[in-house]
Amino acid sequence: MTSVRYRILVVDDDADLQELLKDALRDRYDVETASTALEAASRLLLFQPDLILLDIRLPDVSGLQVCRHVPGYKQQRSVPILTMSAYGSEIDPLEVRRSGADAFLPKPLRMGDLKKRIESLQAKSPIDGMIATFDPRQKLRKKPVKRGDQLLT
Fold it and tell me: Global pTM?
């Protein structure tokens, strides 16, 4: 019997960091990447991640704004959001939590800390559920889907 692998969506505009994270996590997780909030929106629908690893400073929209637009998706699928930023001293942890993020890690990331945090959040996240389309320019539209089902629009 094949087990379902936990899916992680890495949203960061640094291509080198995307590849580093993909390489570090691929042995245990399925990892997809996105460089912008808009690209992340399509990945949410198509990839259906179980965890979102999200940079707070994206080129098109703040990562905190992304967190605020994902609650319908999170509420239906219990998808944790782990935020990260190289500007840790400028980040207000309370604001990060209010935005809907579940955790924050400062950059540069320590892989041991990252993996422990992912495992901790993974324990709280079920695989199946409902998904919502996310477009930072529009409101959320919920559509019930289970992993493996065909998506009909």
Answer: 0.75
